[in-house]
Fold AB hydrolase-1 domain-containing protein.
Amino acid sequence: MVALSKLALVSAVALLVCWAYQATQPPAPAILGAPGGPPIISPRIRLKDGRHLAYREEGVRRETARFRVIFFHGFSSTKESGFPVSQELVEELGIYMLFFDRAGYGDSDANPKRSLKSDATDVEELADALQLGDKFYVVGCSMGGYPAWSCLNYIPHRLAGVALAAPAVNYWWPLLPANVSRTAYAKLDVRDRRTFWIAHHAPSLLHAWLAQKWFRVSPIVRGERDAFTGMDWEILTELWRKQRESGQVDPAKATQQGIYESLCRDATILFSTWEFDPTEIKNPFPGGEGVVSIWQGYEDKIVQVEIQRYVAQKLPWVRYHEHPEAGHALPDMDGVGDKIIRELLLGDDEAPRGLQLQNDLHQDG
Ligand SMILES: *[C@@H]1O[C@H](CO)[C@@H](O)[C@H](O)[C@H]1NC(C)=O
């Protein structure tokens, strides 16, 4: 009897070890362009390490543009999602817009060595391959916010201006005070907390966690209703409906190489312990020759306002705009996309510097 239960225990442990080992082995990615793999249907540039980045150009022609802007898409998204800027503004200001699939998403090759730094050098190499000139503007939305921080840290000399729209925050930024982190973390749904905890403390298990079916995973990661405010949901369901109807966005394309190289890498890099802290970044424009802005909704359930305010307070050269009613869909609200771009490109001296907590999005109409 005793021997039997011991045997059962040993078998159970062996099974568990075996499962844990398998769980930590990354699945083989689907190879772009290979037989049976997803076809490559976008123009791509080749990087120094042999990988390719897929891109999409919009707006006025690159050669004649007055402004050249590179956009970083969010989580589980691609270059097809675009950015909500009006055609009138694009033509009025002469804006060339470059969208690209971040490494491992869409038609861009996966990068097994992906890091905060490689995300910045990818952008630099892309800009050089397309001859965007010495300096260019960058706009990072949501999860595309952290590559924008990377650019500010690693390639500030290449930047003409930076806008962060509802940029993702990391509860484990090295210099984030524990009380700020705790307050923000406590506001999350318990399923999000569990998932983010795994992304930080046991990143090699994140893929198995997201792939399992026994426990419900994060509404934020899944993009479910619970992750959004009522207003977000209205705006986004309408946006997604339009995107589906136009056929421009294929929701399956973001993760066509598998979620390991796209979603898991994104989440584990964002929630890792960074080698730099955003609050220690030096002002890239000490002479006021460029704008760095953060746009945040007070009601955002995905990106907590407490952390955003803390970072903005520490960086007096960042223009912080907080909308009292907006959630995570802030950039997609009427006219907000144009305001973000107008301030980024024209400076607009009316806009106050530093932390501003009142509603400045509505002041000028
Ligand atoms: C964190 O603690 C500091 C100093 O004690 C305090 O000023 C700040 O308001 C606290 N922040 C939060 C979000 O609790």
Q: What stands out?
A: The domain at 44-346 is CATH 3.40.50.1820 (Rossmann fold).
